[in-house]
Design brief:
Distance between the termini: 16 Å
Structural class: mainly alpha
Shape: globular
Protein name: Small metal-binding protein
Number of domains: 1
Strand order of the largest sheet: 1-2
InterPro entries: DUF1059 (IPR009409)
Order of helices and strands: EEHHH
Strand content: 5-15%
Largest sheet: 2 strands, antiparallel
Number of helices: 3
Length: 69
């Protein structure tokens, strides 16, 4: 089971994406961010967005899958 919390990515939000497949959870959190945090995302630079995606991959890649820092 893989879990990632929107709050762990710097957003003031309680959303949590969970699933068994890494790609499934990554897509769910990115979809949530694009829909619910559109304004913040529009204010981010390309480097900030790349850093966000890297952070998602890093958190989901942890062996425990809990998404905790």
């Amino acid at each position: 089971m893989k879990i990632i919390k929107c709050g762990d990515l710097g957003f003031k939000c309680n959303f949590m994406a969970a699933g068994n497949e890494l790609e499934e959870v990554e897509n769910a959190i990115l979809d949530h961010i694009e829909k619910q945090h559109k304004k913040e995302l529009q204010n981010m630079s390309e480097d900030d967005i790349n850093h966000l995606k890297h952070r998602i991959s890093t958190l989901l890649g942890r062996s425990c899958g809990c998404g905790a820092l």
